[in-house]
Design a protein that fits this description.
Elements: E1 2-3, E2 5-8, H1 24-37, E3 41-45, H2 51-60, E4 69-75, H3 87-94, E5 99-105, H4 108-113, H5 119-135, E6 139-145, H6 147-153, H7 155-167, E7 172-177, H8 184-194, E8 202-206, H9 213-223, E9 227-230, H10 244-253, E10 257-258, H11 268-279, E11 296-297, H12 300-308, E12 326-327, H13 336-344, H14 354-368, H15 377-387, E13 396-407, E14 410-422, E15 425-433, H16 436-448, E16 459-467, E17 478-485, E18 490-497, H17 500-520
Parallel strand pairs: 1-10, 2-3, 2-9, 3-4, 4-5, 5-6, 6-7, 7-8, 8-9, 11-12
Antiparallel strand pairs: 13-14, 14-15, 16-17, 17-18
Helix pairs in contact: 1-2, 1-11, 5-7, 6-7, 8-9, 15-17, 16-17
């Protein structure tokens, strides 16, 4: 079994994604989470570019990683000065990481038009930069920026740039598809052409601008690369980077490559959601391997077949990567979702029984009233437990009030008050916000947080409203779907009512109750 080193750059390349801004504390938490799951390299940032990354590396000196190697990032040294005189390199050395990754120009277009120097001077810049860092006893990873574009334009010069890094002592030459425009057959073909010309291990760093970041990374491994750089969940600039959560899964399960420790593969989903939480970027439900819908089945034919043999409609066991199979309730699925949900609750329901028929009748009435459980799996589980009298509420509502106000001189704002009974104690809380649903959410959590502190790890990630019968205009029933997420999972709940606040409250309560139910099973 071949071994592929996993080089994670979520903390540097991933932080360049639009909408992502990690604090120093965020970066420290993610670094240790990546260390726990067994990635080989954690790139922490560019210490010479901003105070935050410099502070991160200083902090990491007091709480080092256990197994992964921490890497600091930079460019080759500036033109016109020696590496020993470059302030960026002083910061690299001060970071005290065992590994340094530097990127250098390998595309002649960039050398002439961007760096504004000669081709020969660029080769000397590469040699001097790598040589200086090797004298400082660092493991040096050389990222050959724009390598595939450079090779296609001027193969002789791109190879010279690689060779310059190799001659100076680089430990790894990473071929970068920086613009993300290459195709898998191009990547594989170029690697096959060059691997005999350099005597240093090769890696791949792919971007996802053509949606091929993962495919290009896998093609590179097949062609001989032994290191893959990427980010968890594919976070990154523009269209993102190659997604390590998919790459690790495919290499491990489909290509018989050793990546992270086999015992840690089951933690892949948890790590993906943890990073998603810290980054405040939800994972798409249909994300391969780790997404909420990756192993969700809706059609009755599929469900029936998979109960007989899971391989009928699943290419792999979801538990291998910490995920689980789901059967979605809809008019297409019949009684099988009841049977499967009951099994998850350690109960047995015969799909031909009166109990199953009663459940289906209740479900059909709910759907007639406007509920849609195929997109609200958490509400469906609560519906099942309540119907089977297997559910004990975590709290009881005494009442709530929502007040919304707008003045001529200021914007609209809302205030919510909530009266509940929790564990025999009456609780009152109030909160305000720009909108009534968020105010209700804040007030409810404030009332519950002392009794249920794990609610602090949960957040609402999406809120959708649909008018069910437009002919009733503003008096029509509305369906509210609320998506929620914590560090381990995502779930959706539903509420239906003519009053949008009541519908929102119903979905909100289901979301909180499902979180508490989930945590109580641990």
């Amino acid at each position: 079994m071949s071994k592929v080193c996993i080089y994670d750059t979520t903390l540097r390349d991933g932080s360049q994604a639009e909408g992502v801004s990690f604090t120093v504390a965020d970066k420290i938490k993610i670094a240790h989470k990546l260390d726990e799951v067994g990635v080989h390299y954690v790139e922490g940032g560019w210490p010479g570019s901003n105070p935050k990354d410099k502070e991160f590396f200083t902090a990491m000196q007091k709480q080092p990683l256990k197994t992964a190697k921490l890497a600091a990032f930079s460019s080759t040294r500036r033109k016109g000065i020696k590496a020993s005189e470059d302030p960026n390199y002083a910061e690299l050395i001060a970071a005290k990481t065992p590994v340094v990754c530097i990127f250098g120009k390998t595309w002649d277009l960039h050398v002439v038009d961007v760096l504004k120097t000669t081709l020969e001077d660029n080769l000397e810049i590469i040699r001097d930069s790598v040589s200086f860092l090797k004298k400082k006893k660092r493991e040096v990873v050389f990222d050959a920026e724009h390598f595939f574009d450079g090779y296609k334009h001027n193969p002789e010069y791109a190879l010279k740039a690689l060779q310059a890094a190799a001659d100076a002592g680089a430990d790894m030459l990473v071929l970068c598809d920086t613009n993300g425009g290459s195709l898998p057959e191009e990547v594989a073909g170029i690697i096959e052409e060059i691997k005999g010309h350099v005597d240093v291990p090769l890696g791949i760093h792919a971007h996802n601008d053509c949606g091929l970041g993962v495919a290009n990374s896998l093609a590179a491994v097949e062609a001989g690369c032994v290191q893959v750089q990427g980010t968890f969940n594919g976070f990154g600039e523009r269209c993102g980077n190659a997604d390590l959560s998919i790459i690790i899964a495919v290499l491990s399960a489909k290509m018989e490559c050793k990546t992270i420790p086999e015992s840690r593969l089951k933690d892949l989903k948890d790590v993906a959601y943890f990073i998603s939480e810290v980054a405040n970027l939800p994972i798409a439900d249909f994300h391969p391997f780790t997404g909420h819908s990756a192993f969700a089945h809706k059609a009755g034919v599929h469900i029936d077949a998979i109960l007989k043999n899971s391989r009928a409609y699943e290419h792999i066991d979801p538990a291998l990567f910490g995920n689980h199979r789901r059967f979605i309730t809809s008019e297409l699925a019949g009684k099988m979702p009841f049977v499967m949900k009951a099994e998850q609750m350690n109960l047995t329901i015969d799909k031909k029984s009166d109990e199953a028929k009663a459940l289906l009748k209740d479900l059909q009435q709910k759907e007639l009233d406007g509920y849609q459980f195929e997109g609200a799996d958490a509400s469906f589980e609560l519906f099942m437990k309540k119907h089977l009298k297997k559910y004990v509420p975590f709290f009881k509502l005494q009442g709530f009030r929502v007040h919304t106000e707008k003045s001529a001189d200021s914007g609209a704002w809302a205030e919510a008050t909530v009266h509940i009974e929790v564990k025999g104690n009456k609780q009152f809380s109030a909160a305000d916000s720009v909108g009534p649903v968020e105010a209700l959410d804040k007030a409810l959590r404030k009332a519950l947080i002392k009794a249920y502190p794990t609610l602090a790890t949960m957040r609402l990630t999406d809120y959708k409203v649909r008018v069910l019968d437009t002919k009733d205009a503003t008096a029509a029933k509305v369906r509210v779907l609320i998506e929620s997420q914590d560090e381990h999972d995502a779930w959706t709940t539903v509420g239906v009512h003519e009053n949008i606040i009541e519908a929102s409250w119903e979905a909100l309560v289901d979301s909180v109750e499902y979180k508490l139910l989930k945590d109580s099973k641990k």
